[in-house]
Amino acid sequence: MIRDQDLEFFRPVSRRYGITIFLLVWSIYEWFVIGSPFWGILTGALALYCYLRLIHNFPELPPDDVDDQ
């Protein structure tokens, strides 16, 4: 489960999309290339969870505090 203190790591959009796409490609690879539907479903479920948590429902974080001087 992704905790609120971990959200700082996932602030860059590229990281969120990268992890989700990686898991989706891994799921397709496991299921169709290797022929292991159990691991394909498992990694597919992880990809779905990452999509829902990191892309669809990601909270808006306030911008970093930067001194404009």
Question: Can you describe what's shown?
Answer:
- The protein has 69 residues and is mainly α.
- It has a domain at 12-56.
- Helix content is 61%, strand content 0%.
- The protein is built from 2 helices and no strands.
- It has helices spanning 13-34, 37-56.
- Helix 1 runs antiparallel to helix 2.
- The protein is elongated, with a radius of gyration of 16 Å.
- The termini are far apart.
Brief account:
The protein is mostly helical and 69 residues long.
Q: Can you give the mean pLDDT?
A: 84
Q: What share of the residues does DSSP label as strand, in percent?
A: under 5%
Content-based structural category: mainly alpha
Number of strands: 0
How far is it from the N-terminal to the C-terminal residue, by CA? 40 Å
Low-confidence stretches: none
**Helical residue percent?**
55-70%
Topology as H/E string? HH
Number of helices, where a helix is a run of at least 4 consecutive DSSP H or I residues: 2
The coarse silhouette is elongated
Write the layout of secondary structure elements.
Layout lengths: L12 H22 L2 H20 L13
Helix pairs in contact: 1-2
Output the keywords:
elongated, single chain, 69 residues, 0% strand
